[in-house]
Write a structure and sequence with these properties.
The protein is an alpha/beta fold. It contains 11 helices and 9 strands. Strands 1-2-3-4-5-6-7-9 form an 8-stranded parallel barrel, surrounded by 9 helices. Strand 5, helix 6 and strand 6 form a beta-alpha-beta unit. The relative contact order is 0.14.
Length: 331
């Protein structure tokens, strides 16, 4: 059985506001909750005009308060930007407010460029190998095992499942060593997907949190009533990716018909690479491509990414996605 969840970067569209993006996030979470999505995650990004989830723990609280049953969490918190104790306190507070519904995915990327990372951390001279130690320190605060000599309040004894996020072999190795679930960012960095999953499954060591490997894979879906309409909707994300990869990040632009025909070889090469793990089309097309991806990866869960300019079109896309996932699971 393959579960399905939503990764929402809380996009700020051209002509829109952060306030509207946050309102849309709560509405979207209620929508996917009704559709049977397992969890709603947002992610920590900084200094990006088109993403409104920089204060990730605050956004999680906002969304969790607007929903009732869906799990809500971070996909993820970029742990090198924070003291582990602060994250234990933040997510311990969230778990106290919304018991049994909070997830904490951890990554080691900055979630920003080097200039913004320096403003966040004040120094980039920290040990690049500190991420595993920081994860274990965070585990210690939640376990309240006394190893740090400090008690996180809130946080001590909180049941917040930890996930390791990654787009390389490093995250796979760490998740396997610590016995944690592993989420691979194949929705934008697909290169090491197959090798990383093989290493994680091969080397996994059971832990108090997890007794066998559990894999989540990112997957882009742009669904509509026709393939042509879906291609049009996908052009907003395509424009945003090209802008980001060419050093000109922007808010999420409105769709452009036949956008890829306007790109040169470089722009099309960027999209062919970054969006390898994607499905764009009608329900029948989405079903085929999801089924092929699940067969390839044997993923326990798909994390659906879907940045669409029009909010109602995005909700409709996710409705079609849920129908396609249910058909895939039944098959």
């Amino acid at each position: 059985m393959t579960a399905y969840s939503l990764l929402d970067l809380v996009p700020v569209v051209e002509g829109g506001t952060v306030s509207q993006s946050l309102a849309n996030a709560a509405d979207l979470a209620r929508h996917v909750e009704a559709l049977g999505f397992e969890r709603y995650w947002c992610a920590e990004h900084h200094g990006m005009a088109g993403i409104a989830s920089a204060a990730t723990a605050v956004v999680i609280g906002h969304v969790a308060a607007a929903t009732r049953t869906i799990r809500v969490g971070a996909g993820g918190i970029m742990l090198p930007n924070h003291a582990p104790l602060v994250i234990a306190e933040q997510f311990g507070t969230l778990e106290a407010l919304f018991p049994g519904r909070i997830d904490l995915g951890l990554g080691r990327a900055p979630g920003s460029d080097q200039r913004v990372a320096r403003a966040l951390r004040r120094t980039l001279d920290s040990d690049p190998n500190a991420f595993p130690r920081d994860v274990m320190e965070l585990q210690s605060y939640f376990a309240d095992d006394g190893q740090t000599g400090i008690r996180a309040t809130p946080g001590a004894g909180a049941h917040v499942p930890l996930w390791i996020l990654g787009s390389s072999l490093f995250g796979a190795q760490l998740a396997a060593a610590l016995g944690l679930p592993y989420a691979f960012a194949s929705h934008f960095a697909p290169d090491a997907l197959d090798q990383a999953l093989a290493i994680y499954r091969r080397d996994f060591k059971p832990s108090a949190q997890l007794d066998k490997p559990y894999v989540m894979c990112g997957f882009n879906v742009f669904a509509a009533d026709s393939d042509a309409e879906a291609e049009l909707l996908a052009s907003s994300q395509q424009q945003a990716f090209v802008a980001l990869r060419t050093g000109n990040p922007r808010q999420l632009p409105p769709p452009v018909a036949d956008y890829r025909d306007t790109l040169g070889a470089q722009g099309n090469a960027i999209l062919d690479h970054v969006l390898q793990c994607s499905a764009v089309g009608s329900r029948a097309t989405i079903e085929r491509r999801i089924a092929a991806f699940v067969e390839r990866t044997r993923a326990d869960e798909l994390m659906i990414a879907s940045a669409i300019y029009d909010h109602d079109a995005r909700k409709h896309s996710l409705t079609i996605t849920a129908e396609a996932m249910r058909e895939t699971v039944a098959a």
